[in-house]
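Predict the structure of VOC family protein.
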Amino acid sequence: MASRLNPYLNFEGDARQALEFYKEVFGGTLSVNTYGELGGQADTPDADKIMHGMLETPSGFTLMGADSPGEDFNRGNAYSIALTGDDEKELRGYWEKLSAGGTVAVPMEKQMWGDVFGMCTDRFGVAWMVNISGQQG
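Done. Here is the predicted structure for VOC family protein.
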């Protein structure tokens, strides 16, 4: 298998809801395991939290995430996830779903470099950049 880079997101107890939301946006297969299932923590407050979740989409995206146990949560904002390509219909569909209920920082419109681009933060606090290359938008 070739090396690949996958975003891994940390959540504060809502990883299942977030990963299910991303499955609605992108489609694909979602697998989740809890701390109780994998971590031997069946009788702890973290037992039902997600220890590891992975979404693999038909477009070849892989998104991973987990709930940070106990006091370890620190999402920060030093990341964003970039979606790029030239399939305008697909990328605009992702944009509409991701930005719904979130905050738009840069509206989806033609930029000075010639592409259509937008930035938003979804309802789970994850920052997204969507770039549609070669569009006349």
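The longest helix spans residues 15-26.
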